[in-house]
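Practice problem: predict the structure.
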Amino acid sequence: MTRWTVIFFPPAGENHSPEDFIDRIQPVAEAARIMQHLNAISKLSELRPHERPGVKRFKKIYQLTCGNHRLYFDTDEGRLIVVLYACRKRSNETKKKDLDQALRNLANYYRSK
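Answer:
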């Protein structure tokens, strides 16, 4: 089974780190559920995350809705899932500022390569 590698950008300890955000989620079971979703996506042989429940395409990136949280991610180099931003879901609408931050993080990720 082919497995995609999941990385978080910005990395832990940096501003807007999705990994740090997930680590702070309470209850811990909800953070574990988010990680289970990412793990399931990483096991897809051909990555088409928008075909998974709770995932949809937004502009250039994907949004995963899990419980009361949203995660934004994209793919790189055919085998990498880059988690760009995580936030608490406060309404049914995606906030422009959250999407903009995820897109900024994506641009920074490519600049840092």
